[in-house]
Amino acid sequence: MSKIFSTSNIEKVLKITEEDKKQEAFLKKTETGIHFIILNRKVNSFTLQFIRKINELLDEVEKNEGPTALVTFGLNPKFFSTGLDLNYLLTQEKNEIYAFILEVIRLYGRLLAFPVPCISMINGHAYAGGCMLALAHDYRIMRNDFGQLCMNEVELGMYLPPGMNAVLQDKIQDKNAFRDLVLLAKKFESKEAFQKGLVDKIVDPEQLFEECVQFAESVSKFGVNKENFKKLKEEMNKNAIDCCFNKGHAVGVRAETQFKFPNPRL
């Protein structure tokens, strides 16, 4: 039987309040410079408001002086994120949908070049855009008893724009795993996700938070010189970042020629 991953201890350690829980996403930090972006929708699916809130929190992380690292996780113990909110998409006009997807892709690009070490604490399922959100972080640590990484667009009849494909190609070195993830919607559970390099480490659920904090503290010193760390990541992830911020590449040339998009947020 799977061990239960509880957020109660995390809430105590991070001093999460009832006011915090009223927000879709919020930021907590430790005295050692570890910043936590905590996703707090039911399954952490993406809306425009949600993505913009995450960007606002990233702005706050960037302002921190001294050792800095970022850990992202979902407060719901079963979900890291399930990606695009399909019900939300149904309420949007076509032009708004493309603009929204572009903003999602640019969030991935921002994380790929973010000036501090970024760790995704995969506490539950990471599907579709949520899988890409986890992968866009520098390091991924996953609980070993529950949760799947999956790109299920093929099952939904949905297209993966070039910008999204570029993130996957940048982060997944095992080409067979990349193929099966995209073309077969294969569900990678923790052990296989680790074996295929989708995640860097798997740990017992009761150790997940502590493991992420300890790792973040060990690498936070590299977040002191943010300008240099950003340059290193920009070169390392150059192709994917270019695709995320080039409108034609990010969502596809046809979308770029048909729709009007906002200027990128760099």
From TrEMBL:
- The UniProt record lists the keyword Calcium: no
List, alphabetically, the PANTHER family matched. Answer: ENOYL-COA HYDRATASE-RELATED, ENOYL-COA HYDRATASE_ISOMERASE FAMILY PROTEIN
Q: Name one GO biological process term.
A: fatty acid beta-oxidation
A Pfam match is: ECH_1
What does UniProt list as this organism's lineage?
Answer: Eukaryota, Sar, Alveolata, Ciliophora, Intramacronucleata
Output the InterPro entries linked to this UniProt entry. ClpP/crotonase-like_dom_sf, Enoyl-CoA_hydra/iso
What molecular function terms (GO) are annotated for this protein?
delta(3)-delta(2)-enoyl-CoA isomerase activity
Going by the UniProt record, its keywords in alphabetical order are: Lipid metabolism
One GO cellular component, as annotated: peroxisome
Its recorded name reads Enoyl-CoA hydratase/isomerase family protein
Catalytic reactions of this protein = a (3Z)-enoyl-CoA = a 4-saturated (2E)-enoyl-CoA; a (3E)-enoyl-CoA = a 4-saturated (2E)-enoyl-CoA
